[in-house]
Amino acid sequence: MQSLSKILSFANIFKMAAGSLTIPDKLASAVWWNDPVQDQKGGNLPDSFWIKFVEMCKRLGVNPHELAAVINNESGFNASARNFAAGPNKPPVAQGLTQFIKNTAVRGFGMSEDLWKQYYKLSAEEQLPWVEKYFQGKAKGKDAGDLYLMNFGGFKNPDGSIYASKAAQEAFKKTHPDAVFQNPNYQQKAIEQNPGLADAGGRIMPEKIRASAKRGLPAAIAQKIDAAIQATAGKPVPPFVPPSPQGSQTYAAPQPVYSPSTNVPLQDSQLGAVENTLWFQ
């Protein structure tokens, strides 16, 4: 297992939809992967991946470096990355380049149950159509901060936060008695499991999430993107080919991934959040 320095602490785990929704009452906060899959990550991905990545970004109308910063935060461009916050004997709660959750993939985008179970075995290139399907129609012209907010999720709280502890909620209500914070218990747990993102007042602000996506890309990834931009310059962009709900049925060998014993257990049945219709679109 890798050291704690290899944990992605800002992983995209659950997203909330506006209006009526069912949301889990635990929030996971780390993606784990192990050394055997390191050669699949980032700058070690083949040039063919980066060509398709840049073509995808052109179709989406987004700067490739901006979207790459989000994916790098989410998974380090490790297509095999899985989050096992539910426990080592439970299905993953999120997986892949952008850390899809099951309800997003299966209910939101029509992915088959079988493909969801095998999704982490797809190559990074094979996952790109699903990434594009998620960002279609809402990524154009956005920077890494806004793109990361799309993946991180949250609430449009009356104090301007996306998550607030119960103490922060009560403090705000003293001067704004009519203020309403949706699902206060869930927000409290989100704060507890993301202490590095919360301010001194117990709030996670959109600006903090935006800033976490703007720390820059590893040089190897930036160079690959620049080379792909140059290679595709002046060439027609291929049309989007929707992913097959069943997948190709030819999967790479499964990669062993480990989970930390300190994560709070989360039952798979609780994964009821549906992403991609939140306030920041």
Q: How does the overall form come out from the CA principal axes?
A: globular
Radius of gyration: 19 Å
Structural class category: mainly alpha
Largest sheet: 2 strands, antiparallel
Low-confidence stretches: 1-40, 250-281
Instruction: Please estimate the helix content.
Output: 25-40%
Number of helical regions? 10
The structural domain count equals 1
Strand order of the largest sheet: 1-2
Order of helices and strands: HHEEHHHHEHHEHH
Distance between the termini: 37 Å
Mean pLDDT: 76
Would you give an account of this structure?
The protein is mainly α. It has one domain. Helix content is 36%, strand content 3%. The chain contains 10 helices and 4 strands; from the N terminus they run ααββααααβααβαα. A two-stranded antiparallel sheet has the order 1-2. A two-stranded antiparallel ribbon has the order 3-4. Helix 1 runs parallel beside helix 5, helix 2 packs parallel to helix 6 and helix 6 packs across helix 9. The longest helix has 14 residues. The relative contact order is 0.24.
